[in-house]
Specification:
The complex is a heterodimer of chains A (about 170) and B (about 100). In chain A, helix 2 packs antiparallel against helix 3. With about 170 residues, chain A is mainly α. In chain A, about 75% of the residues lie in helices and about 0% in strands. Chain B has a domain of about 60 residues: Orthogonal Bundle (Helix Hairpins), CATH 1.10.287.3510. Helices cover about 80% and strands about 0% of the residues of chain B. Classes of the chains: A mainly alpha (about 170), B mainly alpha (about 100). At the A-B interface, helix 1, helix 2, helix 3, helix 4 and helix 5 of A face helix 1, helix 2 and helix 3 of B.
Chain lengths: ~170, ~100
Amino acid sequence: MTPVLLIFFVLAGLAVIGALSLVVQKHPIHSALSLIVVMVCLAGLYLLMGAEFVAAVQIIVYGGAIMVLFIFVIMLLNAGEEERTDFSKLAKIAGLPLALALTAAISAAVVKPDASIPNATQAVIPDATKLISSMLFQEFVYPFELTSFLILVAIMGALVLAQREKK
Amino acid sequence: MVPTQYYLILSAILFGLGAVAFVFKRNIITIFMSIELMLNAVNLAFVAFSQAFGKVHGQVFVLFVIVVAAAEAAVGLGIIILIQRNRQSLNVEKVNLLKL
């Protein structure tokens, strides 16, 4: 087993354990901390693939900004342990098998031997960050500008939603 | 090198776990986090394909996905604060005005 494969399995195992912990934990703050583990592991996998820029953005935006926002809201609302309510019998019996079937179906679709996916990850793309930036500001410049509108609308929406009603 | 299929299977597992959490959880904040988990699984598949085909298009799309996820988190958490204010609970079962 090559060292790269070993690193992959360690990071992938940690990510799956973190995701499982997200499902199993009762308290939302524990779920949030597990999700941070998943995101850091995914950033490590991006580094392993040679996508440094995406790895950095993953840590800064996901691990930093978005998860801090989540934890901030959990603490602001003083969210306690999840109350269990009796959900339907059908969900209790069929839920897990259906979820397993979904995962198996996606996996079976991607490991099909005749699929046109190149079998092994090729050599790292040289100057990937440079290519991303030139593509972002030339080929995808209109979608890129649209995202600034999207963020502006999101900021205004969040402000309008969260402000207190005037008496 | 790690075969592309390994990354895709990991992505499928993470997506499945995100879907399970989305359906099973009752706390609206945790449900929101499971959506983020599913988006992350899709990002992993994007980057794996990008490396497999030797093109950076996938990584550009990952940036757009992250921007949309950030905007969604901002608006969604605003909605969560409103729900808590109106219902005094984060349980999704309590949000049932549209239910028959």
